[in-house]
């Protein structure tokens, strides 16, 4: 809009300059018209002049009639021939009429002086117009540069709008697919529930009918046969009981004899076993004592080894995997980065090719996952224990789809305990990437099975990752690879679409 206003002002200025040029030309024609009668009455006067549109030389401007030149001292110099002809004209005039000739000469001198002044004014105005035209050319050049900058800025805005639109469309597509799948699952569950209810009702009816039939039959049989078999059953039961008692007495006698013999054998075996156990116990006492001493020595050696482990990568000279001691956790394998500025660093997260899924549950993010030589997450529990009692700093390296590199660093970095949902604490930002992570300070870590964000929706589900989401994020380094790995750059006011990222920590003890 401001560029259009400047263009209108430039065009109006150019029109005024053209109008001034035309006025200058008209004034020159008027001067020539005033000189015309003088030429008709007298002989031409030849004088040397300087072309106002040239740095050197002199010459005619209009055939025989010449403009009187303006010398450095603004004087008019006539040539010898002009002076002679003027003398002749005076002599002739004296012969005819002395007074009349003198009057014409005086008028001629006045007219020449007037022409000289007008020519000088025309020269100054023409020079002024030339300067104005030069200024206009410079202004137009600056205007073209401004227009080029405006076009570049407009193109960046168009690219930003396209990227934001693509990201929004992708998020909408994910939400739409999730909604369709959820709707299908709900419909299937409703249909299945209805079918099950129908089957249960039918089975209930059948069971009730069968129970009624069975009850009726049982009652009828009991009524018909109860009296008939009552006495017969009592007699049979008495005979059966007597027979069973006889068998039980015989079996009891046999069992008693067998138990007696068996007890004697068991007693002898038990006595021999006790003797063997006594001998083995005596022998094993020495072995147990030796094993106990060995175990104690091994525990001491392990404790010494663990205490000798480094607590970070500060003494490492090359990149690689080492064992460090983490308080309350024990030995832990970490990847040391010794090449990045401000290190050496403990790498806690790395993504570069999408080979590892970061759509994990709470337990996996707590314990860590992935390959230290590839893509991985060190684990929220380890991050908490590493930053609990030591002052640590955080460094983030990022590369976007245009292969531009960015970094952000925070002087303090701390992860709270699991009781506090592994909430993040950071401060004192620096780097060529703007501060997009401070807006997440105090937020608990969220996964698809444990929603701790401030949004009414589950940000971890929508962005398929685990992060310290809020509403939902201004930075998300664990989202879906390429599409969901983003960082909002306030300097350029655009979202950075990342293809590679590394998060690292190191002691920041003064």
UniProtKB/TrEMBL annotation:
It holds the Pfam family Fibrinogen_C. One of its GO terms (cellular component) is extracellular space. SUPFAM superfamilies: Fibrinogen C-terminal domain-like. InterPro entries: Fibrinogen-like_C (IPR036056), Fibrinogen_a/b/g_C_1 (IPR014716), Fibrinogen_a/b/g_C_dom (IPR002181), Fibrinogen_C-term_domain (IPR050373), Fibrinogen_CS (IPR020837). Gene3D superfamilies: Gamma Fibrinogen, chain A, domain 1. It comes from the Eukaryota. Residues 304-509 form the Fibrinogen C-terminal domain. Keywords: Disulfide bond. This is Protein scabrous.
């Amino acid at each position: 809009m401001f560029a259009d206003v400047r263009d209108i002002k430039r065009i109006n200025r150019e029109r005024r300059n053209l109008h001034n040029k035309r006025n200058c030309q008209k004034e020159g024609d008027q001067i020539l018209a005033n000189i015309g009668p003088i030429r008709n009455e007298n002989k031409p006067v030849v004088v040397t002049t300087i072309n106002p549109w040239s740095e050197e030389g002199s010459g005619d401007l209009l055939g025989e009639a010449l403009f009187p030149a303006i010398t450095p001292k603004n004087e008019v110099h006539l040539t010898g021939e002009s002076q002679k002809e003027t003398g002749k004209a005076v002599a002739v005039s004296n012969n005819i009429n002395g007074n009349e000739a003198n009057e014409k000469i005086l008028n001629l001198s006045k007219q020449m002086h007037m022409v000289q002044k007008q020519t000088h004014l025309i020269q100054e105005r023409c020079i002024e117009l030339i300067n104005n035209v030069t200024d206009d050319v410079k202004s137009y050049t600056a205007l073209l540069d401004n227009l080029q900058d405006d076009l570049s800025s407009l193109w960046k805005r168009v690219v930003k709008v396209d990227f934001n639109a693509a990201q929004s469309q992708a998020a909408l597509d994910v939400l739409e697919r999730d909604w369709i799948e959820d709707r299908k699952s709900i419909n299937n569950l409703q249909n299945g529930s209805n079918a099950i209810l129908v089957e249960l009702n039918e089975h209930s009816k059948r069971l009730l009918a069968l129970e009624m039939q069975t009850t009726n039959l049982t009652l009828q049989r009991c009524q018909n046969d109860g009296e008939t078999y009552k006495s017969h059953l009592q007699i049979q039961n008495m005979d059966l009981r007597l027979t069973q008692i006889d068998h039980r007495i015989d079996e009891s006698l046999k069992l008693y004899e067998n138990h007696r013999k068996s007890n004697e054998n068991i007693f002898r075996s038990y006595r021999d076993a006790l003797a063997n156990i006594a001998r083995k116990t005596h022998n094993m006492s020495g072995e147990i004592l030796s094993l106990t001493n060995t175990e104690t020595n091994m525990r001491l050696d392990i404790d010494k080894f663990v205490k000798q482990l480094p607590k970070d990568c500060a003494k490492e000279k090359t990149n690689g995997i080492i064992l460090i001691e983490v308080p309350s956790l024990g030995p832990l394998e970490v990847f040391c980065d010794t090449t990045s500025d401000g290190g050496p660093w403990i790498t806690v997260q790395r993504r570069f090719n999408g080979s590892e899924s970061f759509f994990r549950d709470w337990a996996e993010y707590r314990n860590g996952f992935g390959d230290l030589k590839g893509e991985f997450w060190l684990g929220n529990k380890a991050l908490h224990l590493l930053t609990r009692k030591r002052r640590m700093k955080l460094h983030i390296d990022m590369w976007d789809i245009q292969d531009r590199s960015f970094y952000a660093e925070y002087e303090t970095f701390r992860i709270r305990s699991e009781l506090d949902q592994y909430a993040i604490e950071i401060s004192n930002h620096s780097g060529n990437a703007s501060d997009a992570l401070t807006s997440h300070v105090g937020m608990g870590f969220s996964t698809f099975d444990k929603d701790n964000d401030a949004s009414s929706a589950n940000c971890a589900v929508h962005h398929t990752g685990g992060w310290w989401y809020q509403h939902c994020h201004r930075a998300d380094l664990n989202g879906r690879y390429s599409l969901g790995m983003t960082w909002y750059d306030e300097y350029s006011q655009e979202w950075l679409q990342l293809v590679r990222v590394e998060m690292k920590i190191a002691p920041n003890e003064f």
